[in-house]
Design goal:
disordered N terminus; alpha/beta; two-stranded antiparallel sheet
């Protein structure tokens, strides 16, 4: 599966917007796409977010406009993000980046010599994953695959026009999925933590995904944590990591992590502020800011239901990191010793690690992680501003300082990162 790149992705929708990112993901080659992603700035979205006001005009459930963005109109729905063109851009960029990091739209090893026939994408959004998955299997010679997407809002295009056997079902995930037991042989779930107001509901959604999966079928879940930590220097490769995963991590300049990987609190002032406000806001809305932990626990809590469980946890630094440039020793070693309560001498006893120079593609991937994160913070501005206690002018100054620090000053040079996770398994009969 290694080698999956931007040039192999075929997004299902060409989003019509003034934002430069759109063209970079809809028809350009990998090199040009990465170059565009390097220069994409979240700051421009504040000027362009109203461009999406007329994008979806007759979609149920009803929408409401708040703070210049479009949201789901039902106040009982926990989903905190806008449903508009700017947010679809962010999700598209993030999904393209994740598929680049993982090397393919699928991480589970069960389809190396075969393909599913009936696929369900839960919380499908624009159905970019279904489109990419179709193309992925088509290149391997498999074409007799049906795809079904489920979401509360009808945001996906008609993929039948692109040659997919496609069906969309509009559905509120707070209710059981409207499919019979064992109806699918592959179920894909992404970012379901943002739809669940209680951890128990997130567990119920995954349990219901298992219900509609046939015995022996594959379930795969992708999640991203919403609180940010600092990755400590030169994390060791976890035991049992495959050579293919190591190569993929090296090619993408990402880090495979495990429960023993060393982290510290975010050192960047702005990300530290954000962490505090997000934790408070999500607590009030009964959402979890670290869905990766919940997903991992859910997969391991019922060994009678899921077998052959696998996982992949990845840390994606937001930019060039000081300790990568230095190798082992110097200021990075001293910082690590300080953060972990160790002496500098002990920190410098680590095995030799050569300095790392990032390629333009690797820098672009990290820039995409940072850009989509800033866009995520912007999307949550209404609730974050409440928790900050700031007036609008004070918030605007904080926002300007944050974007300047993160985008122009490499404010994440200590190792702040995006943590993502994938879990997969087979349904037991």
């Amino acid at each position: 599966m290694a080698g999956w790149g931007y040039e192999q992705l075929s997004p299902p929708v060409r989003l019509n917007s003034t934002r430069k990112a759109a063209s970079s993901i809809s028809g350009e080659s990998k090199d040009f796409a990465l170059e565009r992603l390097r220069t994409t700035s979240s700051a421009s979205s504040k000027q362009n977010r109203n461009a999406s006001a007329d994008y979806m005009t007759s979609i149920s459930p009803p929408f409401v406009h708040r703070h210049g963005r479009r949201f789901l109109g039902d106040p009982t729905l926990p989903y905190p993000l806008p449903i508009d063109l700017v947010e679809l851009h962010r999700q598209t960029l993030r999904m393209l980046m994740l598929m680049r990091v993982h090397g393919a739209p699928i991480c589970s090893p069960f389809f190396e010599d075969s393909a599913p026939t009936r696929v369900l994408e839960v919380a499908c959004g624009s159905a970019l994953w279904s489109s990419a998955c179709h193309d992925f299997f088509k290149r391997q010679g498999y074409s007799n695959i049906s795809f079904t997407g489920v979401d509360i809002a009808a945001l996906s295009p008609d993929l039948k026009a692109q040659g997919l056997d496609w069906r969309f079902v509009q559905h509120d995930l707070r209710s059981p999925l409207p499919f019979p037991e064992g109806d699918f042989d592959f179920v894909f779930v992404k970012d379901v933590g943002l739809t669940a107001p209680e951890p128990a509901l997130a567990e119920n959604i995954l349990a219901d995904a298992l219900r509609v999966l046939r015995p022996g079928g594959v379930i795969e879940v992708w999640e991203s944590d919403h609180l940010f930590r600092t990755l400590l220097p030169h994390p060791a490769i976890p035991p049992g990591t495959t050579e293919e995963d190591v190569d993929q991590a090296e090619n993408s300049a990402t880090y495979i992590i495990s429960p023993s990987t060393g982290f510290a609190k975010a050192q960047n002032k702005y990300l530290s502020d954000y962490n505090t406000w997000l934790q408070q806001a999500f607590d009030k809305h009964h959402l979890t800011p670290v869905p990766c932990a919940l997903t991992g626990w859910t997969f391991s809590s019922d060994p009678e239901a899921i077998g052959d469980i696998g996982t992949r946890r990845i840390a994606i630094p937001f930019g060039e990191v000081r300790w990568e440039r230095e190798g082992v020793g110097g200021e990075a070693a001293q910082s690590r010793g300080h953060l972990r309560g160790k002496s500098v001498a002990m920190a410098e006893k680590q095995s030799k690690v050569e300095p790392k120079t990032l390629t333009p593609d690797q820098i672009a991937l990290r820039r995409t992680a940072l850009t989509t994160t800033i866009q995520f913070i912007e999307a949550l501005e209404p609730m974050l501003k409440v928790e900050s206690g700031k007036r609008q002018d004070e918030w605007d100054r904080w926002w300007a300082g944050m974007t300047h620090d993160l985008l122009e000053q490499n404010g994440t040079f200590n190792g702040e990162c995006l943590e993502i996770g994938v879990w997969w398994g087979l349904k037991k009969g």
